[in-house]
Amino acid sequence: MSKIGLLVCGNSGIDYIEHKYDIPVIRSILLVGDKEYSDYVDITAGDFYQMLADDPSLTPSTAQAATGVILEQYEAMVAKGYDELLVVSISNKLSGTYEGCMLAANMLDDVKVHVFDSKSVSYPEAKMILDAAKMIEEGKTIEEIWNHLEVLRDNHRILFSVETLRYLVKNGRLSGASGFLGSMLKIKPMLEVTKDGRVEAIEKIRTLSKATNRLIEKFLEDLGDKDMEVFLIHANAEERADVVRKAIQKARPDIKEIKAYPLTPVVGAHAGPGVVGVGYIHK
């Protein structure tokens, strides 16, 4: 039976989740001015969002991990005795990381590398790799794990609200932005991660308070009576995230726990500070 090794990209935010598994992280690079940071290693979410708060004129950008670096990580896993690798990546519509993982896989001889496009980002991606680790512990095959990841990919939703579209538009991460360009600095839109892994604006909203209320309303409409794991994501916006949590639990008292996860700096560089996201994923 194969010994399956796991890797995940840092866009999953797995660094902020305690776990017991051997899961190396493929780290993207954050570029701020003339400085370069390895995500989480050199800069954490709290430090990054404080940096933006201190100097709102900063325009951070990012770079994906080099293919050669990913290959070195694969080779390190092989050296540990893994003879099959499973990699979970951020959506290929949001980053070149998936392509880099595939290119590195083609450079590795004699070891099968399976690269799974999560078509998502943040907690759903982390959930996928953590479930995979648990299934390996239970003796599941790569086929069983892959099928389960497809269920998670097809049964999750993320809605989120941003304080400004400036970051998403500047970094080219927003699909269908043309309808928003004339007033993008004045609106607080609601966005979604689409089924095929894009970020798309779905509603124009004029104030942050209305945006928060509509985010709650829309999420509860989408959730309905589904029995799902509900989660929050935020970029230095704990208070607004807590407002969303309380409203959801008031409407659905059966949901006893809603954990909140910070948006990692490389993702936050595209979304901007103040983001609050809410989602659900198959348990």
UniProtKB/TrEMBL annotation:
Which domain of life, per UniProt?
Bacteria
Of the GO CC terms on this record, one is: ribosome
Any Pfam family: DegV
Residue ranges the record marks as coiled coil: none
Q: Which residues form the S5 DRBM domain?
A: 195-258
For the biological process aspect of GO, one term held by this record is:
translation
Q: Which GO terms describe its molecular function?
A: lipid binding; RNA binding; structural constituent of ribosome
UniProt keyword list: Lipid-binding, Ribonucleoprotein, Ribosomal protein
Q: Which PANTHER family match?
A: DEGV DOMAIN-CONTAINING PROTEIN DR_1986-RELATED (PTHR33434), FATTY ACID-BINDING PROTEIN TM_1468 (PTHR33434:SF2)
Instruction: Name the NCBIfam families on file.
Output: DegV (TIGR00762)
Q: What is this protein called?
A: DegV family protein
Question: Which source organism?
Answer: Candidatus Xianfuyuplasma coldseepsis
